[in-house]
Specification:
The complex is a heterodimer.
Chain A (H helix, E strand, L loop, with lengths): L7 H49 L3 H15 L2 E5 L12 H12 L4 E7 L5 E10 L16 E10 L1 H57 L13 H56 L7 H27 L7 E5 H11 L1 H7 L2 E3 L6 E6 H17 L7 E8 L3 E8 L31 H11 L4 E6 L3 E9 L5
Parallel strand pairs in A: 6-8
Antiparallel strand pairs in A: 1-4, 2-3, 3-4, 5-7, 8-9, 9-11, 10-11
Helix pairs in contact in A: 1-4, 5-6, 7-9, 9-10
Chain B lengths: L1 H4 L2 E5 L3 H13 L5 E5 L2 H12 L6 E7 L7 H10 L8 E5 L5 H8 L4 E4 L4 H18 L7
Parallel strand pairs in B: 1-2, 1-3, 3-4, 4-5
Helix pairs in contact in B: 2-6, 3-4
Classes of the chains: A alpha+beta, B alpha/beta.
Amino acid sequence: MSLRDLGIGTKLILAITVVIVGISSAGSIIIYTYQKRSLDEQILERSRTISELLIQIEDHKLISRVAAEFTEVTGYKLKQTSLEPVNQKNAPDDFEKRVMQMFRQGDATEYYAVVTDGDGKRYFRYMKALRTKEQCISCHPGYAVGDLRGSISVVAPYEDIAAATRKNLIYILATVQLLTFSIIAVLYYLSRKIVTVPLKELIKEVEGSAKEIQKGEEVKDIPVRSRDEIGMLASAFNNLRKSLSESFKRKNEAIESFVYSISHDLKAPLRSIEGFSTALLEDYGDKLEGDAKHYLDRVIASAQKMGVLIDELLEYSRIGRINLTRGDVNVAEVVALALEDNIYEINKKNAKIKIPENLPVIKNAEKQRIYQIFTNLISNALKYNDKEVPEIEIGYRDEGDHYLFYVRDNGIGFDMRYHDKIFEIFQRLHREDEYRGTGVGLAMVKKIVETYGGKIWAESKPGEGSTFYFTLPKEVKS
Amino acid sequence: MNMVSAIDILLVEDSQDDIELTLRAFKKNNLGNNIHIARDGAEALEFLKQVEKREAPHPGLILLDLKLPKVDGIEVLKYIKSREILKRIPVVMLTTSKNDRDIKTCYDLGANSYIVKPISFKDFMETIKNIQLYWIVTNQPPVVG
């Protein structure tokens, strides 16, 4: 998994985490360094004070007592030492010897350092030079004024204090990190609430919208819930969709108007073919030999079929493009007209028709279009029917803001695999010599229903008949 | 019948095929009318101007194709209906589809009827018979003289 696969919220949190951890670590180190330095200064200050104090004291016994008390309180070891010790107890160690030799050669009065002892422990060591004063010479006749007489040596255990400081540092770091993680947790929650969740919602809505567009359904605007970038993205998407659908609509209109004019122009030569063939047949039919007359009949029949096809295509291209007169359409009246239109087939096949007593009224609809729906479905129900007594049942159900109509037959039916195909223009399931047709009928019905904002589908089983369902709004939107 | 139906007819049609088929249909229906042919709108206007100057016979019926080269059928119709001498001549529009948006315009401009040119020749003969029955026999407009 690479950084690219992470969500925007995770990336943001990751970046913030890196920054906060960095800052808090740097802060902790600074605090630690400062504490350590102040620790060094503290030891130095104490060592200096005690040394100054001891120098002032004349009484040797008092010195010893003060030193002992000081050691007890602070844990610092105090010692008076000399390069030529009178008492072997005051003999200098290696460090003290080196420092005092340095004192002797120069005029430095103090020295301090952190030293590692032979046992591996670290100590803060401080030394104060004791110079011979005038009043000393009476007791120590061998010295000149300013000569190094000895040193006060302070040995402070450094390891323990440093460890305590380190422990402090761990507390500091732990506190800082805890704080850091709480901040990150809060930020994570906020980023989800402000960025991730609204973005995910938006993505879901855009995807849903895309699916609806693909299905060709009417798409509603995505809700714009905020005025921030996410809200702007939502309205940008709405605008994009609007301009896309407008350009799609314009293209569609251009295609339909192209189909219209093409169909229109195709009719003229077709009229000539049919007209002159008929003239030929009528005027010179008795002079034609063999199959000639039959061939001419075929030419005329084909021209007529193409004429029907073009007329249907023209009609198809008009749906939704040309507004016919709108008004209340009484479905009962329209169904009666459609049955009248198919009366020849009904009588010939001795079909049984079942219609409910009261059929509804569709408001603001085009009578011609509603009629086309029923006449096509009835004609199909009759045509694709090989039963001795074809049965057709027309019915409807009130479903709130729309009606669900159905046209049921006991005909040859079809395989549900071809469900979508039968509604496509020029798609037929049968050979021309089995069942005649142009493949425009159902496509036209579908287009009318969908133009009115309805849906159409069918249920069928081969040999058992089909039921075509379609919905129409009670009042068609203009 | 020929006695009353011997009116002159002006056929404004750009398709040679349609002209021939129309003439044949008239002949087949034994209509002995004198048919004048204009092949486009400009020719039609020229003929009509001659009619106005009495240099051409006054037609009793005008069959006017809607879509014409040069000057459109609607323009010709407008001219006819705006002229004192011509405006009472019945005008029947010829069109390829009954849902043509222009048909409404033609009616508004004073066209008397319209005929959808049928694909089927039989229907065409039927149409011509209907023309004969109504426009040539029954409906005789007053002749301006």
